[in-house]
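Hey,
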Amino acid sequence: MKWFKGEILSFLGIAFASIVICFDLFTHAGIPATMDGIIHITVIEQFYRVLQSGEFPVTWLDKFANYGQPVPLYAQQLPAYIGALLTSLTQNPVITFNLLIFLAIFLSASFFYVFLRFYFNPLISFVAVIIFSLAPYRIIDVYIRGDLPELLSQVLLPLILIGLYLLIQKKQPKGFYLILISAALLALCHPMMLLIYSFFIIPYVVFLILSLKEEKSVKVKVTSLTILAFIVGIGIASYYLIPLKIETKYLYFGRGNPFDSNLFFSWSNIFLERWQSHIDNGILTRVQIVQVGLPEILIVIFGLLLVIKQIFWDKKRKLSLLIFCVFCALLTLFFMLPYSLSIYEHTLLQNIQFPWRMLAIFIFIPPILLAIFLKNIKNKVIYLPIILFVVIIFLVIRVPQLYGKDYIDHPQGTYDFTAVNLNSVMMNTIWTGKTESYPVEKTKASIIGGKGEIISSVVRNSSRTYSLVAQTPLQMVDYTFYFPGWDVKVDNRDVPIQYQDPHYRGVITYNVPAGNHTVVLAYKPTKVRILANMLTFLFLGISIVLILLRKKLRKVIA
């Protein structure tokens, strides 16, 4: 508490900067026309409606993409559930979306500031955080991409870094638990970021371990605990990660190579800073020019020159934070350039889709390098003028870009149902066509063969119950896109599902014998999902045991 009071001015400054960054979002009705914003708002709204109906966990969205989709299979869990919970208070998914963006901007900057304070004084840390907050990639995520999950993931990386520092450097058990919890949340927030952030996390772990002056046994202990924290944390997210890995093979996305090799950076993306204005094009969204940022690349170049000077001129070859940061900067730049193509093609990296996503790491590095430069300024007379000059440069370049283009104010009901798969046709099942090409049906079930009548029906998000009177054997259709897990029972007896009828491609059809019957359709866990759920409970149990053993953990690393 005393520490927080001492830093209150910095946090107030971060809050003000976050308000400035997000101000445009709250001065217009609706949302700016972004690439992904409407997707996340729709998912949040539909998660909220499903939870409101009493269904938990959410495993299916029946009003998404016309006849329903297993959106929770691949939708980022943390933004969806937090968004749904917040919507229960705001009663408006658009307000929820904007609030979450603000919270992501504020919390990521705040936690990054806490991390920086391990190495720098309050003023330097604050300046570095402002530089981080105004990174081009952050502005693009807010006003062009509308990528809420990626913004929220930027909250979790600093928390992991804090946990690593506390565990490895300070030997504090709370660092272990912070890593565990943050790793679990990151996996649920944006699993792709687990892979991307590893290019910063792993080198930082190595840097901390090599910096320890303790004996080898201590290094082995903290290294083992670090690995254990990540395994347990990621294991908690098994219920989501395992089906995501295995069952996306039933989607077009999972059948091909999602990596786009045409989206590597050119040198202009690195050395030029370009923004197109509000009126430069007739399309709704602002033109996305993904870029490093000119001041940022100049900071990295200066850092590289300092490293070269230290190693070859000053003969200082001891590992330092400067060397670590320059190494990570060059590593991420390499993976954004086409020279790394062969690595992407033969590794899991192809799953990140776009090489420029490595900017998610890079945006943390120039601020740290700048902080190192400022810390080493010996002449305090020029100290404050340099800080002022740097801040003004960033304000002049970046603040004019804090705006959305062509705000869209849809009626709230727009997000309750969508005929189009907003995630693109690549997320449709491999046995369906474009979801918008199917007629929108007012009822869920229909008799398409034979004579009979549907007496009553109870339709819920992931289940339906029908009472039928069939004068002859019937062929029925349920206007639901089939996905493994859907099950049909007629009078409690399993009935085969057909989903490849050329007239009802990818839609659930089934046969019912003559007579009076009760038909129940339900979306149930597959064997893969059951196993994944069991693993999640197992790792939750392990985490509880580890919490109960915190006193012993303190002794182990003491």
